Amino acid sequence: MDSTRRVVIDTTGSGAIATGTVRSDAPIMSVNGWRWSRRLEAWYLPRTFRPETVDRYVERTAEALAAAGLEVERVDGPRDDEDTRTTRRQERDHELVDLNERRAAKAQAEADASFAKADQILDMIPPGQPILVGHHSEGRHLRDLATVDRAMRWSIEAADAARTYRNRAAAAAQRVELAATERTTVDPATIQPGDLVRAETPKERYDRGWHRVIRVNRKTVTVPSIVGGAWTDTIPLDHLVELRRPDPEPGATT
Is the same domain home to 53 and 97? Predict the structure, then answer.
């Protein structure tokens, strides 16, 4: 690396950009979470990263660059607030749905075309036809079999890629759906043992089904084991998003 270079790491807004870097800085940058931008001609940290993640990567990177003999300056401007970052993540998820659906369609088309090519060649070879060694057809037969092998391998690889892209699109679509669901809260004073509750948290979702309340505590409700064990679990009251009364037993009076 050129020890005369000066690198400025700017964390203003969201993510970070390291100006003064070059692509050959990869041994330091890529291992610390940075990605190369051909448009910016610089390394950057994605804007979807949390501020604490950005700070951790920036600190490690600055130390590594300084150890390599470069002059490093850090600029910490105003950070985007959580609402802005959330909106950006949601916009990115919408983009990922479209991007991965298009990639899946392209990969699947390639898989189908390669399979059709192999199938077409095999149709011209009589079933069980051996390679006639020394015959004028030997060379073509061998070439055809090699072409079939390559086409089938590529078909399998492309089909696997299509499956991966579809899974990524589905995951992004699920995040979009969850983000679009209006979060509500349940008044703890209205909860009674026997009620059914549904819950979610910012970082993880409980089972989408309903959980029967065994006991109402000061900050939580006790429910049967969420994973079906013999124990009980507790759910924080501020994670409850829906409440309903159980249907009355047949023959019960109200």
Answer: no
* Residue 250 maps to a domain: no
Secondary element (H or E) of residue 26: helix 26-29
Q: Is 85 helix (H, G, I), strand (E, B) or coil?
A: helix
User: What range defines the domain where residue 136 resides?
Assistant: 83-180
Helix (H, G, I), strand (E, B) or coil at 153: helix
In the predicted model, residues of the chain with pLDDT beneath 70 are: 1-3, 179-185, 201-208, 247-254
Same domain, 229 and 175: no
Per DSSP, the three-state class of 218 is coil
pTM, rounded to two decimals: 0.52
Structurally, the chain folds into a number of domains equal to 3
Whole-number Å distance between alpha carbons of 50 and 134? 68
How many angstroms separate the CA atoms of 39 and 65, rounded? 22
Does residue 88 contact residue 47 with C-beta atoms inside 8 Å?
Answer: yes
Reported as a single tens digit per residue, the pLDDT across 70-110 is 999 999 989 888 778 777 788 888 899 999 999 999 999 99
Measured in whole angstroms, the distance separating CA 130 from the mean position of its chain's CA atoms is 49
Cβ–Cβ < 8 Å for 191, 169: no
| Last residue of one domain, picked from the residues 180, 213, 233 | 180
Whether residue 239 lies inside any domain: the answer is: yes
**Interstrand relation of 71-75 and 196-199 (parallel, antiparallel or unpaired):** unpaired
SS3 225: coil
Give the CATH number, domain containing residue 197. Answer: 2.30.30.30
Q: Is 95 helix (H, G, I), strand (E, B) or coil?
A: helix
Tell me which of 137, 162, 180 is where a domain ends.
Answer: 180
Domain co-membership, 88 together with 51: no
